[in-house]
Amino acid sequence: MYEEASNSTILMLLHTAVYPFLAALIVSIVAGKLLRASSYLGYLGGFIVGLGLIHSGLSFPPNQAIDYYSVTTLIGIASVLCLTLINSLTLRFSASFVLFGLSFYFLLNPVLKHSGLVISLSWAFSCAIVTLIYHLLIQEKVQETVKFKTNNERSISPLLLPIGLMITAGAAAPVISIGGSLLIGQLLGALGAALFGDVAVSYFIKATKSHSAIPAFLILGGLITQSHVLADIPLNVMLMLVASCFVTPLATALGNKLSNKQSTFIIIGQTIVSILISGLSLWLVWPESSLY
């Protein structure tokens, strides 16, 4: 019995962390180094691998809420293309808002449809607004750090946004796993591992970053929101976890051309805030009965 439990734990670790990380490494290298494409495709590829392994019933076209993360991935890519290719500011934000709303509508409607169309649209609208605010915060910073330094010094600054989301996902994973849904908690772990693989490759090959945090925020926001709608995580816990996503964008918005030392302090600050929120959230969601 203990051997079966050990094998199950190892398999869960492989599906949640190891395989998504390795997949993100491979896709990031191919996309960033060989194809000269943005390496955000790396963490999306890693997350899809984790999604397929963790959610064994994954289907396309989707027929349940979790299946729609494959659609969210495609919407994330489309939103990056819109933000990159559309010159008109009004048109760019309008298209982005529609795409953000569609992503959350697809993820939440399979459950919320029983409450009526108005409720589903209200959730989608609210989540799209939050995502748009995140984009507005990072817009100028993305333009400033779209290229790495040309000398031999590697800069952490362009990677702050995906690092911040990686830390948030990792800190939220145990909260969701213990408090509501092991499946969603595992997917948060897979996203964090995939982001780590993407960040590692991007740092060493000095890949360009262009709005690369938007797809990650869509997936992370979807997972945190689903934890409330699908898994009954308390609303105040959901809001705290979402708020922790904004620590790094707010910190980076305060400074221009951040040095590696300043970037390190921002990462430490994000880590401290995420751990504190995770600890408080665990205290709020911890079940009264034994976990075993």
TrEMBL record:
<feature type="transmembrane region" description="Helical">
    <location>
        <begin position="12"/>
        <end position="31"/>
    </location>
</feature>
<feature type="transmembrane region" description="Helical">
    <location>
        <begin position="266"/>
        <end position="286"/>
    </location>
</feature>
<keyword id="KW-0812">Transmembrane</keyword>
<feature type="transmembrane region" description="Helical">
    <location>
        <begin position="66"/>
        <end position="86"/>
    </location>
</feature>
<protein>
    <submittedName>
        <fullName>Uncharacterized protein</fullName>
    </submittedName>
</protein>
<feature type="transmembrane region" description="Helical">
    <location>
        <begin position="184"/>
        <end position="205"/>
    </location>
</feature>
<feature type="transmembrane region" description="Helical">
    <location>
        <begin position="159"/>
        <end position="178"/>
    </location>
</feature>
<feature type="transmembrane region" description="Helical">
    <location>
        <begin position="212"/>
        <end position="231"/>
    </location>
</feature>
<feature type="transmembrane region" description="Helical">
    <location>
        <begin position="40"/>
        <end position="60"/>
    </location>
</feature>
<feature type="transmembrane region" description="Helical">
    <location>
        <begin position="237"/>
        <end position="254"/>
    </location>
</feature>
<feature type="transmembrane region" description="Helical">
    <location>
        <begin position="93"/>
        <end position="112"/>
    </location>
</feature>
<feature type="transmembrane region" description="Helical">
    <location>
        <begin position="118"/>
        <end position="138"/>
    </location>
</feature>
<keyword id="KW-1133">Transmembrane helix</keyword>
<keyword id="KW-0472">Membrane</keyword>
